């Protein structure tokens, strides 16, 4: 009898071990995939959060700037990379592309703030929304014309730009028994570095102090002799530059790629993350990115393995957004009122 029980227990243990292993691997895969998506989400949303936190402007052109960043980064890589270019050299060129795109879009954003945003500061928010939406239409159509003129399909991912990634990022690696693309690990590292850089900028620099003070009380900040208008220009430029950096990262990612519809896709992601985290809260943006990335990765895994419904991950993100707004309308870390002119 005892021998039979022992044999039965051994059999149960042997049959359950693969199940436990599969569950553990599935959880680890979801966590790694969620972190890579969270890194992209925080890159997309951080500039949008900075701009609204100080200026109170919802920049609908943010997604278009991300899309332009993807194309500009792709141009740099396609022009400079050949089939003989080594992997380390491609990474160096990629970081140069990030620097160039960040500088170009920062300058463009600063010029945009001074020429078309500043004159309507005293108008109702509807004017800001309509203006930035008009900028979206102009930028998207301009990029569409240029892309079609160059013989590319604006609705499709730019495969030539994706192909400039080094083999080390296209390879799948085994991490604790879980297969993950090298690019996703690279995105996690870049996302963490950008979050750390923005945190240091906000807490360790003079303009970071201006931003935090201006978001709390812009009138008192200006009364203390701080040029709040210049701070607005700097912040809007940095926000546009961060959108470009996000675009360069997405340019290499086969889940996104450089295309004209990328602007709308990233704008929706940015708004979802910023609203969940709380308008104007960078900490909220980081936490919301982790929440949204984890949710998207979980639902993607559920869709791939259990539920034949391709729209499930995107739908659940909106469900999370609605749930947060019902429980806490100002977002997870948002204030009742932010920004000002």
Provide a brief overview of the structure.
With 341 residues, the chain is mainly alpha-helical.
Enumerate how many helices there are, as a single number. 13
Strand order of the largest sheet: 1-2
Under CATH, the topology can be stated as ABC transporter involved in vitamin B12 uptake, BtuC
CATH class call: Mainly Alpha
pLDDT averaged over residues = 84
Element-level helix/strand string: HHHHHHEEHHHHHHH
Structural class: mainly alpha
Number of domains: 1
Q: What does the overall shape look like?
A: globular
Distance between the termini: 83 Å
Strand content: under 5%
Percent of residues in helical segments? Answer: over 70%
**So, CATH architecture?**
Orthogonal Bundle
Explain what the structure shows:
With 341 residues, this protein is an all-alpha fold. It has a single domain (21-327), classed as ABC transporter involved in vitamin B12 uptake, BtuC. The protein is built from 13 helices and 2 strands, in the order ααααααββααααααα. It has a two-stranded antiparallel ribbon with strand order 1-2. Strand 1 and strand 2 form a beta hairpin. The protein is globular and about 60 Å long. It starts with a helix and ends in a 14-residue tail after the last helix. The relative contact order is 0.19.
